[in-house]
Amino acid sequence: MATVDQNSIAPTSGVPQSKQKISLLMLAMMNTAVVVGLEGLPEVGGFGLSLIFYYAVFTVIYFLPVGLVAAELGVGWPGEGGVYSWVKEALGERWAFLAIWCQWLQILVWYPTVLAVCAVSASYMFDPSFGEKAWFVLIVSLAIFWFATIINFKGIHESGRMTSFLLIVGTLLPVLAAIGLAAWWLLDGRESAIPLEASAIIPDISSVGQVVGVLAIFSFLSGLEVNSVHFRNTENPQRNIPRSLLISGVLVLGVSILGALSVAVLVPVGSINLASGTLQVFEKVFGVLGVPWLLPVIAGCALLGMVGHIMIWVIGPTESLRVAAKDGLIPAVFQKMTKGGAPKNVMLLQAAIVSIICMLGMLINLNDVFYVLTVISAQIYLVMYALMFVSVIVLRFTKPDIDRPFRIPGGTPGLWIVAGTGLIASVLGICFMFVPPDMQDVTISATMFTPIILISFAAIIGIPFVLYKRM
Predict the structure, then answer these.
(1) Residue 444 carries which DSSP code?
(2) What residues pair up with 343 in beta bridges, in sequence order?
(3) How far is CA 274 from CA 43, 149, 226, 320, in A?
(4) Beta partners for residue 22, in sequence order
(5) Residue 29 buriedness (CB in 10 A; 0-12 / 13-18 / 19+)
(6) Helix-then-strand count for the chain, H and E
(7) Residue 149: which residues within 8 A CB-CB, separation 6 or more?
(8) How many whole angstroms from its chain centre is CA 63?
(9) DSSP secondary structure code for residue 130 in this structure
(10) Distance of CA 57 to CAs 52, 53, 69, 244, 422, Å?
């Protein structure tokens, strides 16, 4: 079998590269930061103890397949472009353009939700009522996003180092603190906001709407493939890429499940605010302990964590768009790079679009927008994942001689089981998300929900095909 030394694969000529390699620890932290965010814990916490069951299911049918597929494709094709390059190799430019379009558009749709969480965290540092003021949310959102964009101009090594620090200080520590407080609350004999009997782990799936509400977990377990655009700068990619995915996978599941349970135990479902639910945990317990002055401190940490979460997303998909520009699928002006190797013009365009979306968001109810944007974001992303799962199968048969230091275990049957499971889960997830959810914290009219999601999905998926024909 012919093999290729992946360490010898040269990046595209003229693309600035960092002289420093990304270590195993940094890549693992970047992988974790791209998936874990405080914004998802309140929504998932609303499922109560049954979230353990849901996460177990989603890990098997979705999170694990994504990680395994990303590992095989990442070490087999570690050059620039990430998902765009993988799908292009397997299915051609048209489908590759759709894949990267979906990846980028879902991020644009998602940014306002996570920026709203940032604004609420910032408000808890001064006055929680500020989080309900549109002008405050807008100012904080724009300041954070432009800060993240400018920092990433320096290149992935600098932003990656900062992201690792922010993840530890701003996400892991607050979540661990929330878990500790929830444990103390229960051990002190205080009442839990959710039933803690073992039987509560089995969910109520008596209606389709209740099942649909759970599908938001797709969005909160996505993103492991985003850092694939940086695999070419990784130390010993054959060993470190799969290991980093394993480490980050354990961290993601641990933080997500235990963090969401801490919210569920301490905050009644009817009182959970989708933007500030995690901080509600600290607000409640700090009040009982008589240390409310700690709330602004923990809010500041949470804000730092969300900034780190955003920073890693700002550059990932934009790098793939730069490669698409190199192929002539979008205007050549988007090939321009900073001295640090970041796709400057794509990132500036992204920041401008996000700024406009945030301004429009001042006119809409935040809780309704949060869930609707989460659904649209997840649907779009699942289209990309469906293409990725198909690509790994196609490439295993059409390009068997490419050296893959890591392969999905189980040979060809294992490939079909892993990628096939992920593909089926993605397609079913897309279809079920058109159904209105049956959730207490989502107040949007059921008659409006499906048309809004359907029109948005059709428009977003149709645009790249129109653009591609005009190229």
Answers:
(1) S
(2) 337
(3) 6, 25, 25, 31
(4) 234
(5) buried
(6) 18, 0
(7) 314, 347, 348, 350, 351
(8) 12
(9) G
(10) 9, 6, 18, 22, 12
Q: Residue type for 241, please?
A: I
Please name the residue that has the structure tokens 């469906």: 386
Angle at 144 between CA 140 and CA 150, to 5 degrees: 145
DSSP 92-149: -HHHHHHHHHHHHHHHHHHHHHHHHHHHHHHHHTT-GGGGG-HHHHHHHHHHHHHHHH
Q: How far is 108 from 102, CA to CA, in rounded Å?
A: 10
Could you read off the pLDDT of 140-187 as tens digits, one per residue?
A: 999 999 998 888 887 665 666 777 788 788 778 888 888 888 899 999
Residues in the chain: 471
End-to-end CA distance of the chain: 38
330 phi/psi in degrees, rounded to 5? -135, 165
Name the token pair of 385.
């994942």
**For residue range 20-62, what is the model confidence (pLDDT) as tens digits?**
677 888 878 777 777 777 667 777 777 888 888 988 888 899 9
For 327, the token pair is: 């192929």
- What is residue 173's predicted lDDT score, i.e. its pLDDT? 85
Letter for the amino acid at 129? S
The CATH classification of domain 19-470, taken from the options 1.20.1740.10, 3.40.50.1980, 3.90.1720.10, 3.90.600.10: 1.20.1740.10
Rounded to two decimals, the pTM is 0.79
25/370 Cα distance (integer angstroms): 32
Classify residue 60 by its DSSP letter.
Answer: I
Looking at the DSSP bridge assignments, the partners of residue 234 are: 22
For residues 279 and 259, the answer to whether their CB atoms sit within 8 Å is no
Question: How many whole angstroms separate alpha carbon 451 and alpha carbon 459?
Answer: 12
At what angle are helices 134-152 and 93-124 packed, to 10 degrees? 130
193 near 268, Cβ under 8 Å? Answer: yes
Tell me the two tokens of residue 356.
């406009």
Burial class (CB in 10 A: 0-12, 13-18, 19+), 210: middle
Q: What SS3 state is found at 82?
A: coil
pLDDT at 448: 80
Give me the amino acid identity at 407.
R
In degrees, to the nearest 5, what angle opens at C-alpha 362 toward C-alphas 356 and 363?
A: 110
Distance separating alpha carbons of residues 118 and 465, to the nearest angstrom: 35
Q: What is the DSSP string of 71-94?
A: HHHHHHS-STTTHHHHHHHHH-HH
Max mean pLDDT range (165-169, 174-178, 329-333, 350-354): 350-354
Q: For residue 453, what are the contacts with CB-CB under 8 A and spacing of at least 6?
A: 372, 375, 376, 379, 433, 434
Determine contact, residues 296/125, Cβ cutoff 8 Å: yes
